[in-house]
Design brief:
The chain is of the alpha/beta class. The protein has 7 helices and 11 strands. It has one domain: NAD(P)-binding Rossmann-like Domain (Rossmann fold), CATH 3.40.50.720.
């Protein structure tokens, strides 16, 4: 089944909630057909139902764990079978570990974050490359969801921070390796977008000095609009890195 609107196809991981859902809605509003990927099919169906209220492009949902290489391959094959091509991959699936002291973090907790945030991003980029190199017209765009935490870590966040540093490395390497094949790769670093995951920020979050303070947040729709802008560029133009954040959140300076 083909696309309507822009005629472009976007695959979004972690599309069942938060930033992934917001980006799906924004892109669908721009006429993208969507291939929504996540671990919980019922959450993907919710995203699809909301999107369908405001747009007419096709939407498909596919349950998969991005940390599993076989499931990633099957997901991208299903996308190709459904839509015939892929124009945009938004690598959004991510997770964190419990905020415990460094020495109390278990290997299993560390590994779970690495498998999703870093290995999952790699696996999806790899499959997108294979599809985008072969399709006609050739090429496409990949946008990775990084994090400003990679530059300014929160207390007790070593797995998340380390993996987001790794995502930045993947973005740079994939951007270089994709040049010859008309594949544009960029990254968005989002700070304090209001989602279910950031509800605690408004109530109070641990600061490096040991205090607990509320932090400003921004509407998640602003992050989604930023991704949609990156996606709107022709393939001969690219936003390599973008930071979009709540203006008054503690990031630059000393709080």
């Amino acid at each position: 089944m083909g696309a309507s609107g822009t005629g472009k196809i976007a695959l979004i991981t972690g599309a069942g909630s938060g930033i992934g859902r917001a980006v799906a809605l924004a892109l669908h509003g721009e006429g993208y057909s969507l291939f929504l990927v996540g671990r919980r099919l019922e959450k993907l169906d919710e995203t699809a139902a909301i999107a369908a209220q405001t747009g007419k492009a096709d939407i498909a949902c596919f349950a998969a764990d991005v940390s599993d290489p076989e499931q990633v391959v099957v997901a991208f094959e299903a996308c190709r079978s459904r839509f015939g091509r892929l124009d945009l991959l938004f690598n959004n699936a991510g997770t964190g570990a419990p905020p415990v002291p460094f020495e109390e973090l278990t290997y299993a907790q560390w590994r779970a974050v690495v498998d999703v945030n870093l290995t999952g991003t790699f696996l999806c980029i790899q499959q997108a490359f294979r599809l985008m190199k072969e399709q006609v017209p050739r090429g496409g765009r990949i946008i990775n969801n990084g994090s400003i935490s990679a530059e300014a870590p929160r207390p007790f966040s070593s797995p998340y921070t380390a993996t987001k540093h790794g995502v930045t490395g993947l973005t740079k390497s994939a951007s270089l390796d994709g040049r010859a094949y008309d594949i544009a790769v960029g990254q968005i670093d989002i700070g304090n977008a209001a989602t279910e995951m950031t509800e605690r920020m408004a109530k109070g979050i641990l600061q490096p000095d040991g205090s607990v303070r509320a932090e400003p947040v921004m509407d998640v729709k602003e992050a989604a609009r930023a991704v949609a802008y990156m996606a709107s560029l022709p393939l001969d133009a690219n936003v390599l890195f973008m930071t979009v954040m709540a203006t008054k959140m503690p990031f630059v300076g000393r709080g």
